[in-house]
Structures are given as structure tokens and as C-alpha cells.
Amino acid sequence: MAGCGCKNKNNIKEIMKRCPLCHDKAHSISYPAVKMVVKEELKELVVAGVYYACDCKDCEVVFFDEDGEQIFLVIDVDFGADFKEVTKEGIKSCGGTCSPVCGG
Ligand SMILES: [Zn+2]
């Protein structure tokens, strides 16, 4: 039986990390998305690489980098930006990469 392959692709792409503050799970997010929502003066700190977004709504951490050295808190993020598109609830399980027939 031939599936759409969505799940397999997703497993390779998706790397789970733990938030350095609340230790809840966080999902990977591309740096342009981070750059898009952090405050103006922090944009230059965002470097090309993988960032993670904390899934916990009560946590002050929004994004952190691979090593957990760079952490963006709620106060570092401009909530006027298109925030919901990039974090917390806006991520589709398939990452939007699979075909419509897959159903996510
Ligand atoms: Zn957290």
C-alpha cells in the first residue's frame, strides 16, 4: 500500500527538544520565522540555524536555539506580528509539506 510518505518525511524533519526553562517539549522552527516576530533590536541576533519554540503556554520562553544559549522570552517578541502563524498553535502536524490527500 502506497501512502503519501508524509509521516516519514516529518519524522526526519521534526526534532524534539526540551525547553530550557519549563522542560516541556518544544518543536523546531526555522530561523526566518523567529526573525519575523522578535523585536526590531533583536532581529540581528537571530542567526541562520534551527530554533525551537516552547509549546507550553504558561512558559516565558518563546524561542530558543539549538544549544539553549540564545533564548527569546515573551517580552522579546512582538505580538503585533503574525505570531500565531509561527508558533504555539499555528503549526500543522505535517508542517504543511504533505499533499492535500494525505489529510495531515
Ligand atoms: Zn518552556
UniProtKB/TrEMBL annotation:
InterPro entries: Znf_CopZ (IPR040890). Pfam families: zf_CopZ (PF18423). Residues 17-77 form the CopZ zinc binding domain. This is SET domain-containing protein. It comes from Alkaliphilus hydrothermalis.
